[in-house]
């Protein structure tokens, strides 16, 4: 009987044994710019998932400077390579800071979402905001991209990744949070992520 059980176990697909991947697909805010990688919120999220004995593993495919267009161009390869059960999409900030067309930003993010959902991955969309010096019309148009996409694609949405970051918790560039801010960012992401872990 033991031999039969062993043979049956060996014939199980690898996915029956392996942890499920959560793909963090973002820019410098998720890549740990200016801080040690192990202090970044995705690394802290991995530690929290391990602490709670979750069957999920974090794969961080974030790249500093990445745009929504760049993400659109590499999402297919990332999905094939990592085969995630969940994708956390955190892109668009660099597009906005460069003043790109909000229609183009939205279209590129939408295509990333479509490819991920067609891959049967659940998606958590992470929203961003721009500094007020970009002008009220553009700032509002940009900010509205994320809830509109979440509604259109029926996604979980974290409205603003940096909502809990205090002014003194930013690096000298006033764009990237310091290491001390990362645990709260992780908790904010986890709050919206939890329903997708079930």
Could you characterize the architecture of this molecule?
- The chain is of the alpha/beta class and 198 residues long.
- It has a single domain, classed as SGNH hydrolase (Rossmann fold, 3-Layer(aba) Sandwich), CATH 3.40.50.
- 48% of the residues lie in helices and 13% in strands.
- The chain is built from 8 helices and 5 strands; from the N terminus they run H-E-H-H-E-H-E-H-H-E-H-E-H.
- Strands 2-1-3-4-5 form a 5-stranded parallel beta sheet, with helices on both faces.
- Residues 1-17 have low confidence and may be disordered.
Summarize the amount of helix as a percent range: 40-55%
- How widely separated are the two ends? 34 Å
Q: What's the SSE pattern?
A: HEHHEHEHHEHEH
Number of helices: 8
The fourth-level CATH homologous superfamily is SGNH hydrolase
State the name of the first-level CATH class.
Alpha Beta
The Rg value, from CA coordinates, equals: 18 Å
Arithmetic mean pLDDT: 92
Q: What is the molecular shape?
A: globular
- The structure class reads alpha/beta
In short, what is this structure?
This protein is an alpha/beta fold and about 200 residues long. Helices cover about 50% and strands about 15% of the residues. It has helices spanning about 1-10, 30, 40-50, 70-80, 95, 100-120, 135-155, 180-195; strands spanning about 20-25, 55-60, 85-90, 120-125, 155-160.
